[in-house]
Amino acid sequence: MAVCVCAGMMRRDEVDQRAMDGLRGLSAEAGLSVLAELKSNSLQSVSNKSAYMCGIMKSLRQKAAAGVLTEATKRPGPDEVKLKVKVT
């Protein structure tokens, strides 16, 4: 979240705990995707920036549930090579 605040997109008081927890729950790639979308949009007319960020995260989760995953929204899974080595 410090990236968001430090980049000047949002002030610390504009980010609630729910948004911070949601961002922490994402993979690094998905989190960067959320931050990139925030940065690419003008937030001047957004009255509740925290809710706006939660909406972006919700859209990501819905796309993931619908199977419309991109590399940015996929959570890293186990390394198949390491699993095969441990099993054999």
Describe this protein's structure.
- By secondary structure, the protein is mainly alpha-helical.
- The chain has five helices and no strands.
- It has helices at 2-6, 17-24, 28-40, 49-65, 80-87.
- It starts with a helix and ends with a helix.
Tally of alpha and pi helices: 5
Biggest pleated-sheet summary: none
Q: Rg to the nearest angstrom? A: 16 Å
First-to-last CA distance: 41 Å
- Categorize the overall geometry: elongated
Number of domains: 1
Low-confidence spans: none
Q: What is the share of helical residues?
A: 55-70%
Overview in brief:
The protein is mainly α and 88 residues long.
Describe this protein with a few key phrases.
0% strand, single chain, 88 residues, mainly alpha, elongated
Note the topology.
Elements: H1 2-6, H2 17-24, H3 28-40, H4 49-65, H5 80-87
